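S1.2 Input.
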Amino acid sequence: MIILIDAPLSDERAGQIQNLSPKIKLLRVSQIGKPLPKDLLKEAEIIYTGAADFDPADAPRLRWVQTNTAATNPQGGRPILRSNIPMANVSGAYSAAVAECIMGMLLALTRRITLGCRHQAESKWPESTSAFCGEDLYGTTMGIVGYGSIGRQIARMADAMGMTVLACKRNPDQRRDDAYLLPGTGDPDGKIPKAWFGADQITDMFRQSDVAMIALPHVPTTEGMIGKKELSALPRHAYVANVGRGAVMNEPELIEALKSGTIAGAALDVFVEEPLPSASPFWKMPNVLVMPHIASWTKMQSHRASGVLIENLKRDLGGQPLINLVDKKIMY
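S1.3 Output.
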């Protein structure tokens, strides 16, 4: 079993993979993210990659591909997405890190931590603390659009904080999620949400939500899904958090909602254009927290991602179906 590695992989993880079977041979490229060498592609039976920058026609022995990303955007337009070769993602590997980040961003707004940071930067104790009076999340309702691995871990955290959770997904009748799961995370059986909504019921859910949590992938069917109509359904005290992809949000309409007071604020880790241009109004809005698309970026990121590869190698060696296979028709 020859595995071509084109993604970060620690020596510890490489050793764990090697110990799975004496049949395994690892081929590691020297420059990650570059087009894969054709001489190595000829040998590869499995490829572990981020960019998937290769033509499957150059890999006659290739049986399946494991990406180190949860979304298919990094592989957008690559020949692998037009092939019949199975491709798995690492959905679930980053869920804990992403959920921690976006919940931290939300708390930074609701508890005025961002205001405290501005005062600290100026070495200035406030004359009055009235502006620091924030909002409780306990007892409020969070509506989550996109109830995959990340949405489910956010739900778990919100539920533990005393929030009511509502869930919206493409097929709300399919409540179980069989994706890769870190121990003790998520909501695989779909037991946390108080109510479920379909993609055409977002406004119904938002009318009941104090926090609108967006955890959608960017695919053709989700582009611009959240705009004026949906934002206007939220109460004026509501916050919006986007940790999915920037393009699922109509940014001009979000900016207008923030300026007009239609919503109270926004926690944003993703944007239509990245890097976010310096002229973007988001930078200077006191009720917006901007982060540079780093929600999954922790010291454990590559370790967590390679855990999915190891799980799928175990399954392959044992003759079991792979986990986290991407449906190339819907792109996740």
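S1.4 Remarks. The chain has two domains: 2-93+299-317, 95-290.
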